[in-house]
Amino acid sequence: LRFDEKVHVVVFKSEVKGVFCAGADLKERAKMDDAEVGHFVKRLRNLMDEIAALPVPTIAAIDGYALGGGLELALACDLRVAASSAKMGLIETTRGLLPGAGGTQRLPRCVGIGLAKELIFTGRQIDGQQAASMGLVNHTVPQNNEGDAAYQRALTLAREILPQAPFAVKMGKLAINRGMEVDIASGMAIEGMCYAQNIPTRDRQEGMAAFREKRPPQFIGK
Which Pfam family is one of this chain's hits (predicted)? Predict the structure, then answer.
């Protein structure tokens, strides 16, 4: 996906009705020794980092349970859409654990430190409506009979992104992600570097021409 130029948006969904991702298999985990657990969690953390580093926008379609590592997977995505009936939570403390695949870092960056601490300390599960009210998800929708309401809303969101200039969207994602990790002056410099890379693109010229000619732009991603 990282190197496929035809891919402009990635939507993460589950093939299991009622479950986005239920997290680690604790029965499997119980059979591991301490070293194996450490290696497993490190690999999981690396996977989430790879997802977060995808150059194109990513959307998690949460149509059911997103617990523990499942919510960490959703947090690694850029955008999240949830069914109102979905259940989300970093429940690790209820099992004698703590989030180990990015949850302690991505949740506070998403909802703020106070709410993140409350959710992690209590291991509380929240529904899609509550998640939307605290900014954990971008949109919440009533579940449908097929059980894929969040996925359908995620597709609608993806279709809003698809017509836009692909390289500009990629640079926008890069500027936001890198800029959020530094002070604002450094962030402005990062934005400037990303903007400079976009200036010579054919899509920028096409966008300007389409505006002058009062027609929809035809972007090619170059």
Answer: ECH_1
